[in-house]
Amino acid sequence: MRGTRRAGYDQRAGLAGVVFLLASLGACEFNGATALGGTCAAASDCVGGACVGGRCVDPLGDEDGDTLLNGIELSLGSDPSSPDTDGDGVPDGEELGVFDSPFDADRDGRADIFESLTNDADSDCLVDQLDPRNDEPDVDLAILIPKVCRQAGICGTSAGLKVRCESAAPVCDYSGVAGYRETEATCDGLDENCDGRVDEGFEDRTGDGKADCGPPRPAVGLTGISGGGLLSDGQHRVRLVVGAPVSGRRSGWALSPVSGSGRMGEWRRGMAP
Questions:
Q1: What is the pLDDT of residue 217?
Q2: E strand or H helix that includes residue 70
Q3: Residue 53 to residue 64: CA distance in whole angstroms
């Protein structure tokens, strides 16, 4: 997990014990050591003690432009000629953190700057940067639950969720989640397949975008009424229109938005409101 660089940290101060002599001379020898820009086979060949790619470089410079000084990278063992030592697409300067306390996401003692976010050396579905044992396949892949598992509805607490590795790809296992169903099996107001939707596939009789899980309300009986009037089932108020066509259909009863409830439309005998 990424931390935050310590406020006011100065890489040059961190190099105080690493670099004792700097040179800005041309490519010539100085007391047996090669100046900046000269050829070298080892750090000891150079006046500044920094040999990168066969050339003496300034330890306070930044050959690869990754925001880490050459001397810092040589001291750490990262590659001062590559902005991304482990080749995972994250620049060394971002992965390091602080020189004397580098980021180590899996706490295996090896800094993130050296462990890839894309490679998986032991093919256990944990990338090296998150795998404390890069040479031994891990069985516990709980760290991947937030990345590969749906966690809505009854899966919200992660209880019972597991991740297994199949053909080097992580797969979420929901079998341990109490009440889990791959397809919603019961209209109960719960999200049983953890996809963020509740009771999808069940009837929405009221048109409010939610499944109506209870039994239909009993129809209000209109038998015996011969004139206009108002009826109510406790939730809807309807006006009885006798003998008048409704929406171009046969005669029936029209729903009228009395006191703001009810919907315009046809209400036939025996039909629930």
A1: 55
A2: helix 70-76
A3: 11
